[in-house]
Design a protein that fits this description.
Elements: H1 3-31, H2 39-50, H3 60-64, H4 68-76, E1 83-85, H5 89-99, E2 104-108, H6 116-123, E3 129-134, E4 155-159, E5 183-187, E6 204-208, H7 221-230, E7 236-240, E8 254-255, E9 261-265, H8 268-277, E10 278-279, E11 285-290, H9 297-312, E12 326-329, E13 333-337, H10 343-346, H11 352-356, E14 361-367, H12 380-387, E15 395-399, H13 405-414, E16 420-424, H14 431-438, E17 464-468, H15 482-485, H16 487-500, E18 507-511, H17 517-524, E19 530-532
Parallel strand pairs: 1-2, 2-3, 3-4, 4-5, 5-6, 6-7, 7-9, 8-10, 9-11, 11-14, 12-15, 15-16, 16-17, 17-18, 18-19
Antiparallel strand pairs: 12-13, 13-14
Protein name: F-box protein
Organism: Phanerochaete sordida
Pfam families: F-box-like
C-alpha cells in the first residue's frame, strides 16, 4: 500500500477517535455530580469564582472549556460578564456586549497612559453602572460623560498616583445625578466640595490629599460643615489634609447620628475647629493624626479636650456615659478604649488585631513622625494624657522611651484606679517608673534602696505588673555593681518595699527577658504569681505558669 494513502487513513482514524473521545468526556462530565447541577446553581458558582478575578486575570476561560453545557450557561449569565476591567478596547467592547443590560462593576487599572477608548465606552454605560474603581485618574477632555444620570451607581473610587496641584480637578461625576450613591473614595485628587459626589446619601466617605505645608484647598469651613450636616446617614468618615483654614463662621453644629468611625489626618488647628462643630455617638471609633513630629501642644490639648467632651456628652443617647478603661502610650501617640483590655493584649505590636476582635477603640491620637524627646520640653504623649479623662483607667501599657518626671507625676494623679500596668523600654527609661512605684518624688542618681520614701507609692490599687524585654546588664570587672543596676533587681527591691507597705502584687509577668533561678526566686517573694517565658528561664528555675 502506498505510504501516503496509509498515512491519510491513520490521520482520518485519529481525527475520528478525537471526536469520539471528546464526546465521551463530555458525557462523563454530564454524569459527574457537578455536571448535574441546575443552571441556577452553576450560575452562582461562576459568579463566586469570578468575584476573585483581578486585572489581567483570565480565569473565566476555564469555565468555557469544561463542556458545552457550561459554556452555554456561562454565556447566558449576564452578571458574569458585568465585572469589567478595562485592559483593552476590544476586551471592553466584548464584555459590554456579553453583559447586555446587566449592572456593571467597572475597574480602570493602573497605567502610565490611560486607554481613552475603553474609558469613553464605559462612561457611556454609566446609566447601568453599579460601581467604578478608577486608578491613576486624570481628567480627560475626550472622556466627558454623555449622560446626566447614573441611577444605579452606588460606589465611586478615584485614585491618582502622580503629583497633584491644589487646584480643583474636574471629574465626570461632578454634575451627575446619582440618587443611590453611598460610597466615595478620593485619593490625591482635589475635588471641590460642590461636586455631586458629596451627596446626602453617602454612608462612607474617604477624601485624601498629600500634605504640603501652607497649601490648602481654596474652600471655606462653613461650606464643609454645611455638606457634612446634610450627610445624616454617614457611618464612616476619613479626611486627610482636606480641612480648610479655620475661619469665623456661624454657629453651625453638625450632628452625625450614624457615625461609627472618624479618621482625621490634619493640622491641630483645623482638627480642633472640626471637632468643635461636629458631634457623634459615644461609641464611635475616633482616630486623629497630626502630619508633623512637633505639633503645637496647646492646640493638641484643645483637640483632645474637644474630642472627649463630644463623645462623653452625647445628647441623644440614653446609655450611660462611657469611661476610658484601658490606655496604650507610645512615642507616636496614645490609644484609649472604653472596654477593659489586659496588659498582655495592650502590649501587642499590632493594634489592628484589636480591631479584628471588634473591640471598640474610642480614641487614637498620634503624630506622623517620631519626635525627639530632647528637643521638646513636653512630650506629645504627655500632652495627650493630660487632656484625657483617665480617672477610671484600670489597665495601661507604656513604651517608656522619652518619658520624664513630669509625665509620671501627671499619670500618678490622673490614674488612681490603675490595676494593671505594662512597661517596655531601655533600662534607663525605667528609672522614673521605678521611683513612681517606690514613692520617690524625684529620680535619684543611685539605685533605689526603698529605705526612706518621702511620699505614697503610685498606683496603690496595682495588682498586675507586666514587663517586656528587660535588657540585662552583664556582671564584669568593669561593671562590679551591675547587679544593683540590673532592672530585674531594681524592680524586686521596689516591689518588696510595696509588699512591706501592704501593696503586694497578685501577679507579675515578664516576657522576652532572660531570667536566672535567683531572679525567679526573688520575684516569687514579692508577688503571689510569677509568669514568664519557659524558654528564657534557667532549667533549674521553679516558676508558676
Amino acid at each position: 500500500m502506498d505510504i501516503e494513502v496509509e498515512k491519510a487513513q491513520i490521520l482520518a482514524s485519529v481525527a475520528e477517535w478525537e471526536v469520539q473521545i471528546a464526546a465521551a468526556k463530555q458525557r462523563l462530565n454530564e454524569f459527574a455530580p457537578v455536571g448535574r447541577l441546575p443552571d441556577e446553581l452553576l450560575v452562582e458558582i461562576f459568579l463566586h469564582q469570578s468575584s476573585s478575578w483581578r486585572a489581567g486575570d483570565r480565569s473565566w476561560t476555564q469555565v468555557l472549556r469544561v463542556c458545552r453545557r457550561w459554556h452555554e450557561v456561562a454565556s447566558r449569565c449576564l452578571a458574569l460578564w458585568a465585572q469589567i476591567c478595562a485592559t483593552s478596547f476590544e476586551w471592553t467592547v466584548n464584555m459590554l456586549s456579553r453583559s447586555q443590560q446587566a449592572a456593571l462593576d467597572v475597574v480602570i487599572p493602573d497605567g502610565s497612559t490611560p486607554i481613552i477608548n475603553p474609558i469613553i465606552s464605559l462612561l457611556a454605560e454609566l446609566p447601568r453602572t453599579r460601581s467604578i474603581d478608577w486608578n491613576h485618574y486624570r481628567f480627560l477632555h475626550e472622556a466627558t460623560t454623555p449622560v446626566n444620570s447614573a441611577p444605579f451607581l452606588c460606589s465611586v473610587t478615584l485614585r491618582c498616583t502622580s503629583p497633584v496641584e491644589y487646584i480643583p480637578c474636574p471629574t465626570p461625576f461632578d454634575t451627575l445625578d446619582m440618587p443611590f450613591l453611598t460610597h466615595v473614595e478620593l485619593v490625591d485628587i482635589p475635588v471641590t466640595w460642590t461636586s455631586n459626589m458629596f451627596s446626602t446619601t453617602l454612608t462612607h466617605l474617604t477624601y485624601h490629599l498629600p500634605h504640603v505645608r501652607d497649601r490648602r484647598l481654596n474652600q471655606s469651613f462653613p461650606r464643609l460643615l454645611g455638606i457634612l450636616k446634610s450627610m445624616t446617614k454617614l457611618q464612616f468618615l476619613e479626611l486627610r489634609n482636606v480641612l480648610p483654614e479655620p475661619s469665623r463662621t456661624e454657629d453651625i453644629q453638625v450632628r452625625l447620628p450614624c457615625l461609627h468611625s472618624l479618621n482625621v489626618y490634619d493640622e491641630p488647628l483645623g482638627t480642633h475647629f472640626l471637632l468643635e462643630h461636629v458631634s457623634f455617638p459615644r461609641d464611635a471609633h475616633i482616630s486623629i493624626t497630626f502630619p508633623t513630629s512637633y505639633p503645637n501642644h496647646d492646640q493638641v490639648a484643645r483637640c483632645v479636650s474637644s474630642l472627649t467632651s463630644t463623645f462623653a456628652s452625647d445628647p441623644d443617647s440614653k446609655r450611660p456615659v462611657h469611661r476610658l478603661q484601658s490606655l496604650r502610650v507610645t512615642q507616636l501617640g496614645v490609644e484609649a478604649w472604653t472596654m477593659h483590655q489586659g496588659v498582655d493584649v495592650l502590649s501587642s505590636h499590632v493594634t489592628d488585631s484589636l480591631a479584628s476582635q471588634s473591640v471598640p477603640l474610642i480614641i487614637q491620637v498620634a503624630t506622623e513622625g517620631l519626635p525627639d524627646p530632647a528637643s521638646a520640653s513636653k512630650s506629645f504623649s504627655e500632652t495627650v494624657c493630660r487632656a484625657l479623662p483617665l480617672s477610671d483607667v484600670c489597665s495601661a501599657f507604656f513604651d517608656l522611651e522619652g518619658f520624664n518626671s513630669g509625665h509620671w507625676h501627671a499619670l500618678q494623679e490622673s490614674m488612681p484606679n490603675l490595676r494593671e500596668l505594662g512597661l517596655f523600654g531601655p533600662p534607663s527609661s525605667h528609672l522614673w517608673a521605678l521611683n513612681a512605684l517606690a514613692g520617690s518624688v524625684d529620680a535619684p542618681t543611685n539605685p533605689i534602696n526603698g529605705s526612706d520614701q518621702s511620699c505614697a507609692a503610685a498606683f496603690p490599687k496595682l495588682e498586675v505588673l507586666f514587663l517586656r524585654n528587660l535588657q540585662r546588664m552583664q556582671h564584669t570587672p568593669r561593671n562590679p555593681n551591675s547587679s544593683e543596676r540590673d532592672p530585674v533587681s531594681r524592680y524586686c527591691k521596689v516591689l518588696r518595699t510595696r509588699k512591706n507597705a501592704g501593696l503586694l502584687l497578685s501577679r507579675i509577668v515578664i516576657v522576652e527577658t532572660v531570667l536566672t533561678q535567683a531572679d525567679v526566686n526573688e520575684l516569687q517573694s514579692v508577688a503571689q504569681e510569677v509568669v514568664c517565658d519557659l524558654d528564657r528561664v534557667a532549667p533549674n528555675a521553679s516558676v508558676d505558669l
